[in-house]
Amino acid sequence: MIKSMKAGRVKLYDANPQFLKLLSGTKLQVSIMIPNDQISDIAANQTRADEWILDNVVAFYPDTMIRFILVGNEVLSYDDRRVWHQLVPAMRSIWRSLKARNLQIIKVGTPVAMDVLESAFPPSRGTFRSDIRRSVVAPMLEFLNETRSYFFVDAYPYFSWSANPRDINLDFALFEANFEQIDGGTGLAYTNLLDEMLDSLIFAMAKLGYPDIRLVISETGWPTAGDIEQPGANILNAATYNRNLVKKMTAKPTVGTPARPGVVIPTFIFALFDENQKLGPGTERHWGLLSSDGSPNYEIDLTGKKSSVEYNPMPVVENNVPFKGTLWCVAARGVNLMELGAAITTVCGGGNGTCEALSPGKECYEPVSVYWHASYAFSSFWSKFRSQGASCYFNGLAEQTTIDPSNGSCKFPSVTF
User: Fold this and answer.
1) What is the mean pLDDT of the chain?
2) Per-residue pLDDT for 3 more than 80?
3) CB of 36 within 8 A of CB of 72?
């Protein structure tokens, strides 16, 4: 399937032997990953690093063209400082093992999110966070520089735009802008948000004395759908972003960024498939080029040779502006009643007053139905804990509605945007 899509690289979030075997002989460049929970062990034990390389690289290489080993995933976005300081030692252990086997063609790195920066705009002001700048990032850059590896970044213009849609132009985020933004510090002109994000990292690295470390975009993309209050998550924007991204990254001559014109940036689109069982907000389940059943969400040519006029027309969208109104979270239609009953027990068993109104004799006890009780419990929990990260999902049993489900004296809690 990946070959039929004419992809040049594939990234795994582990080192699954079944997938690595399937990729044998495909000539696809492969990136594999060491899980976060193995970093400490590998950092402390060279033998463990050697075993990992034997089991996950030597066993498949060179028939499977492993090119990158990523140590952890967005480690610096989690508040586990012990692992922060074990990250570079783990990278060095893996590199020593590769070097001992003359496998220096395989590069070692670690993907970071844009939250490693404390300042990102304008790009020339890009600066790493003070809590990691000297203690973690500087040693990491030293390692990447001496091993001629890459700085791997998960860069999502969607998140930057959707968090601030009034101040960031949507066309600027989608590579569709007909205007430029000038960085007053350098005079460099920017026509899209991704270039600004990438250059902010380039300037941040330069401030630590490493102006030449190359970039890899280890994740980028745009969601095809999301929750009602998540603006811009639709098929038209996803297709526009990813098609334009491919055009930019495959252009001849190479485009690069304003700070590094003409420099190739290897890029991975997230993701191949939708993840229909992933927890969290709606966008978490809708990043795929393909739906969870393998059918394409939209047309895309990963070679960049197809022009925009060759694609079929896309549906008109209506969610490119932030939602204003009130939402409730209710039980989804057609779900299993046994699963709903178990969800009620889970949601109402926290002792936090979420389901107090469902007690016998209380205002929302009747009608006594699993669907009614689940809908109240979901809406109450979501409204109470949304600010702490709760989403209207509940393992696929819930959905949002703009229609007030309240009945008589039973008023359903809601969230207003």
Assistant:
1) 96
2) no
3) yes
pLDDT at 1 over 90: no
Q: Give which of 172, 135, 138 is closest to 157, Cα–Cα.
A: 172
Domain(s) of CATH 3.20.20.80: residues in the chain: 2-310
Q: How far is it, in rounded angstroms, from Cα 410 to Cα 329?
A: 15
Say if domain 2-310 classifies as CATH 3.50.50.60: no
Query: Is 51 designated active site?
Result: no
Question: Are 213 and 198 spatial neighbours (Cβ–Cβ below 8 Å)?
Answer: no
74 in catalytic set: yes
Strands 189-190 and 181-182, by their bridges, are antiparallel
Place of tokens 């063609």: 105
Dist CA 37 CA 299 (whole Å): 37
Of 74, 176, 339, 366, which is the active-site residue?
A: 74
pTM: 0.93
Q: What residues contact 85, with CB distance under 8 A and at least 6 apart?
A: 135, 136
Summarize the confidence of residues 50-55 as an average pLDDT. 98
Rounded distance, CA 213 to CA 211, Å? 6
Residues with Cβ within 8 Å of residue 334, at least 6 apart in sequence:
none
Kindly name the residue from 196, 219, 229, 399 that is annotated as catalytic. Answer: 219
Could you report the per-residue pLDDT of 250-273, keeping only the tens digit for each?
Answer: 999 999 999 999 999 999 999 999
DSSP state string for 332-369: PTT--HHHHHHHHHHHHTTSSSTTGGGSTTSTT--S--
Name the residue among 76, 88, 75, 78 with its Cα closest to residue 42. Answer: 88
Q: β-pairing, 415-416 with 111-113?
A: unpaired
